[in-house]
Specification:
Elements lengths: L1 H18 L4 H4 L8 H16 L17 H11 L24 E8 L5 H9 L5 E2 L4 E2 L21 E12 L4 E12 L22 E3 L2 E3 L1 H7 L16 H27 L5
Antiparallel strand pairs: 1-5, 2-3, 4-5, 6-7
Helix pairs in contact: 3-5
Protein name: GLIP1 protein
Pfam families: CAP
Organism: Crocuta crocuta
Length: 273
């Protein structure tokens, strides 16, 4: 009888410990490019950061999405490769979009539990701390923010954005396993000395544009795509899937505590084993 009880206790503890180990790919679902909340977040957070640049921009365009399905598909297709490098077709004339000679791209990679649209775009935008607008010099990495060969978060002329996130068992080029690869494509891409023109907000907007959230917005695009306010109740910026993040943080201590408790019970009440 003691041997039988000991076997059942061992099996129960083993099953319990196994249940605490999360299956990343199945536990964490990532949004598809047609997920409306995902789309809104991609647009909102880009426009939020574009509206907050300093020095102020006189010609920053409002980004839209729905008519940029082509760039979303491009981002999704490239993300499936699970490689932390830029699409080789970015600068091939009209290859990724019929209206743009080239498009820009930003890439983020990290653990599934840490991914969120807001945190990824914030990481790109935070590169501004290394960029001096007036001298046009960068002390560290700031290509995502401003002026590398890829299209940044705050290039004034880019007004279409399409993003995708992909689960990757391994993100090549990073050493990340069971991670998320988030890619945004922008159109049109632009090359010029600075990402935008400094000046009074919206003072250099194209004719007939309205000033919306400190950004130049063509009425047609807002009416056609819908207006995604940059101010909404979900602030502050936080990582995705708080419940999972908490679980991943708490489960190891619980596992250790369970093992220690089992050992203590076995020594305190040996008759049960």
């Amino acid at each position: 009888m003691p041997d039988s009880l000991s076997m059942w206790v061992t099996l129960a503890v083993t099953a319990w410990m196994v249940s605490l180990v999360p299956g990343y790919e199945n536990t964490v679902s990532l949004p598809d490019i047609e997920n409306e909340d995902f789309i809104k977040d991609c647009v909102r957070f880009h426009n939020k950061f574009r509206s907050e640049v300093y020095p102020r921009a006189s010609d920053m365009l409002y980004m839209v999405r729905k008519i940029s399905v082509i760039v979303e598909v491009s981002a999704k297709t490239w993300a499936r490769n699970c490689q932390f490098k830029h699409n080789v077709e970015l600068h091939s004339s009209y290859k990724l979009h019929p209206n743009f000679s080239f498009v820009g791209e930003n890439i983020w990679a990290g653990s599934l539990s840490l991914f969120s649209v807001s945190s990824a775009i914030a990481d790109w935008y935070d590169e501004l701390q290394y960029y001096d607008f007036r001298t046009h010099k960068c002390t560290q990495v700031c290509g995502h923010y401003t002026q590398a060969s890829i299209c940044p978060v705050v290039w004034a002329a880019s007004y279409k954005v399409g993003c995708a996130v992909q689960y990757c068992s391994s993100v090549y080029g990073t050493g990340i396993s069971n991670g998320a690869l988030y890619i945004c494509n922008y159109g049109p891409g632009q090359y010029r000395s600075r990402p935008y023109t400094e000046g009074s907000t919206c003072s250099d907007c194209p004719n007939d544009d309205q000033c919306l959230d400190n950004l130049c917005s063509e009425t047609f695009y807002v009416c056609f795509t819908g207006y995604y306010s940059i101010v909404y109740p979900d602030w502050p910026i936080s990582v995705r899937n708080k419940n999972l993040s908490l679980f991943l943080t708490v489960s190891p201590p619980i596992l250790i505590l369970g093992i220690l408790t089992t050992i203590w019970v076995k020594h305190r009440y040996p008759q049960l084993f």
